[in-house]
Write a structure and sequence with these properties.
The structure holds two protein chains of two kinds. By secondary structure, chain A is mostly beta strands. Chain A has no helices and twelve strands. In chain A, the strands form three sheets. In chain A, strands 2, 5, 6, 10, 11 and 12 form a six-stranded mixed sheet that branches. Chain A has a four-stranded antiparallel sheet with strand order 3-9-8-7, with no helix packed on it. In chain A, strand 5 and strand 6 form a beta hairpin. The radius of gyration of chain A is 14 Å and the shape is globular. The termini of chain A are far apart. The mean pLDDT of chain A is 93. In chain B, the strands form two sheets. In chain B, strands 2, 4, 5, 6, 9, 10 and 11 form a seven-stranded mixed sheet that branches.
Chain lengths: 114, 113
Amino acid sequence: AQSVSQHNHHVILSEAASLELGCNYSYGGTVNLFWYVQYPGQHLQLLLKYFSGDPLVKGIKGFEAEFIKSKFSFNLRKPSVQWSDTAEYFCALKEDNQGGKLIFGQGTELSVKP
Amino acid sequence: DTAVSQTPKYLVTQMGNDKSIKCEQNLGHDTMYWYKQDSKKFLKIMFSYNNKELIINETVPNRFSPKSPDKAHLNLHINSLELGDSAVYFCASSQDLGPYEQYFGPGTRLTVT
């Protein structure tokens, strides 16, 4: 079955530290990949997405992700985190012809200490 | 302008009751979804609708019945509520079933006592 795995359950960083959150998926076909963020008590917001083309994708708020097909990975990065980045981060996969559903990873809670 | 809205935001009810959650999108999208987020924050698809037609029913108990009166609305009715139904329910929409991002509503926190 198709799945998405996020390696880090809870990450704690100090402000200005660099961030990398891991995401791996299991599916051999064409995929669309997403990173969503959920700030405390709020709904999910799209950070960035990969459909095709340049495997290095830039998103909002200084986030970027790199699609590495050979590794089935789509890791999220940010060079310098801020306290306001404290949130839950979800990697998600959308397959072709599967009714549009997103398959989510387990989520990574990021806590940034001021 | 709220793109995807849900009501109510909070719902507290007793076991055995029947309740509904409403969702509306003003984005002109063709496809709408319901997701359930459990206490560990894991998100799982429940239903998807495209042009008012059911596309996905992801092994959800038949106590859950979605209804789409038009493309802009997807409501969720739950019969005979159980403790395990306590969760946050998110509605979402996308342009259609293709490679488009999904826009999420604010969520409805359902607590069954």
